[in-house]
């Protein structure tokens, strides 16, 4: 016990331990606005051409996409009603959501026609979520 700890104990002051230090780093679950049509979970902001091509193909702007790191995704799966695309990130088992797409890295995706085809089929399946005003 440090001297500071001893003084606090003598003054009957309870010390708290911050369990999630990412709170101070800005890694907090952000508010998901109504304009967001796709949530991308990746270790870093995707910048590859294939990513921009995919957004263009499904007619989404970058303003309509929320990019999160895995540590920022702390909202329960049931609370999210938006399509979530995990890029080179394996979702936790508690993250069972029917609106989930999971792919390998974008570099690998660009080289594998079968994976691109599967992704395109999934994206087409969720078209109504990307553009709910089109019926």
Automatic annotation (TrEMBL):
Superkingdom of the organism of origin: Bacteria
Q: Name one GO biological process term.
A: DNA replication
Fetch the InterPro entries from UniProt. DNA_pol_III_psi, DNA_pol_III_psi_sf
Q: Which molecular function term from Gene Ontology is one that the record holds?
A: 3'-5' exonuclease activity
Assigned keywords, A-Z = DNA replication, DNA-directed DNA polymerase, Nucleotidyltransferase, Transferase
Describe the task this protein carries out: Part of the beta sliding clamp loading complex, which hydrolyzes ATP to load the beta clamp onto primed DNA to form the DNA replication pre-initiation complex. DNA polymerase III is a complex, multichain enzyme responsible for most of the replicative synthesis in bacteria. This DNA polymerase also exhibits 3' to 5' exonuclease activity.
* Protein's recorded name: DNA polymerase III subunit psi
- Biological source species: Gilliamella bombicola
């Amino acid at each position: 016990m440090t001297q500071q700890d001893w003084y606090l104990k003598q003054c009957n002051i309870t010390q708290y331990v911050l369990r999630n230090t990412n709170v101070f780093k800005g890694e907090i679950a952000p508010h998901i606005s109504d304009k967001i049509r796709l949530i991308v979970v990746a270790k870093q902001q995707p910048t590859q051409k294939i990513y921009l091509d995919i957004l263009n193909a499904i007619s989404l702007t970058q303003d309509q996409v929320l990019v999160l790191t895995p540590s920022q995704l702390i909202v329960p799966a049931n609370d999210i009603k938006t399509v979530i695309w995990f890029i080179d990130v394996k979702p936790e088992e508690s993250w069972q959501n029917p609106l989930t797409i999971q792919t390998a890295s974008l570099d690998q995706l660009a080289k594998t026609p079968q994976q691109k085809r599967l992704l395109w089929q999934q994206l087409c399946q969720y078209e109504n979520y990307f553009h709910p005003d089109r019926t």
